[in-house]
């Protein structure tokens, strides 16, 4: 089985999905389609890069918004 087949098998496995979040160490991708693909993409939180992306989005995005808002109100 090549990596593409492994990724697809892991993505299809319901045990890798929990409350809409995806966790699979065998899947090589950081960004994967959501369980309903037309709804967009999600992070593979079993990967270090996925966890860093999540942290960056949860912390960095609000900080960026606050900075942009303070610049426009100044």
From TrEMBL:
Keywords: Membrane, Transmembrane, Transmembrane helix. Residues 25-50 form the DUF5808 domain. This is DUF5808 domain-containing protein. The chain crosses the membrane at residues 51-69. It comes from the Bacteria. InterPro entries: DUF5808.
